Amino acid sequence: MTRRGVHLAALRLVTFALVLAGLITLPNWPVAGAILLLAVLFYAFAPRPPRPDGALVYDRGSAVIGPDWMGLIFGAGLAAMPIWARTDMTGITLVHPMAWLVWPMALVVLSFTVIGWRHDSFIVVLTPDHMFVDTGLRQHRLRYDDITAVGPWKRQLPTWVRRLVPFLIATGNPTQAGAILLARGSNGIALERQGARSFVISADGFDRQAKEIMTVLVHHNVAVRRGLSYLLPRTRKE
Fold first, then answer.
1. Long-range interactions of 129-137: CB distance < 8 A, separation 24+
2. Is the pTM of this model over 0.90?
3. How many helical (H) and strand (E) elements, i.e. helices and strands, does the chain have?
4. How does pLDDT run across 6-52, given as a tens digit for each residue?
């Protein structure tokens, strides 16, 4: 994981801990409200790693903040359920046995926050001879001369995630089930490279930036596969 990725992952980990702590204190609304407000303020104003000048990044609203908070709120809510339910039990049990069921589901829902982290970590810097990419996990320098073609890329939400919907509804979690139903697949571009795997860039919340990348690739005479006309420079489409 790159330094940028570690920084942004730690920011989300602390935010999740604060949201979970706030929810656990319910129904003590004054305390819960104060902790949840602190979580929002920390997420909004905590220092973030600097970006290079001219870096292309994902749109914060739709690609970062939305997925982040969908995972943080619903994931923390599921994680807190066994702790809320323990008040109905006797003895020294710290959590309700339902934890075996809902905590794995909380991890699944937190995948939305992972998506937000990936988008927040991802930056592209276009230079005269290569693209510098920081994915949060690794840094890449993709030379234009090594890119043989660029084509469309699509990925649907995994089937096993969709199959959680009836489970969530049956356990009284329609909001989380609705979040999964509303989630859609991803579209983007795949950079085909000589002697290496294709490098994929998701274009959801990155359309304008993807068009800039396509403009540079067309300038360097990279072959364009069918299905990417909506990202091509206007002069190329004409």
1. 131/213, 131/216, 132/52, 133/199, 134/2, 134/4, 134/5, 135/2, 135/5, 136/1, 136/2, 136/4, 136/5, 136/8, 136/9, 137/1, 137/2, 137/5
2. no
3. 11, 8
4. 999 999 999 999 999 999 998 888 999 999 999 999 999 999 999 99
Rounded Cα distance between 53 and 172, Å, is: 48
DSSP 8-state secondary structure symbol assigned to residue 87: G
- Checking 194-197 for CB contacts under 8 A at 24+ apart, the result is 194/146, 194/148, 196/146
Copy the structure tokens of residue 73: 């709120």
> Crossing angle, helix 99-109 and helix 111-121, to 10 degrees?
30
What is the distance between the alpha carbons of residues 101 and 230, in angstroms, rounded to a whole number? 44
Q: How far is CA 56 from the centre of its chain?
A: 16
C-alpha span between 9 and 142 (Å, rounded): 25
- Alpha carbon of residue 238 to chain centroid: 35
Sign, Cα dihedral of 71, 73, 74, 77:
positive
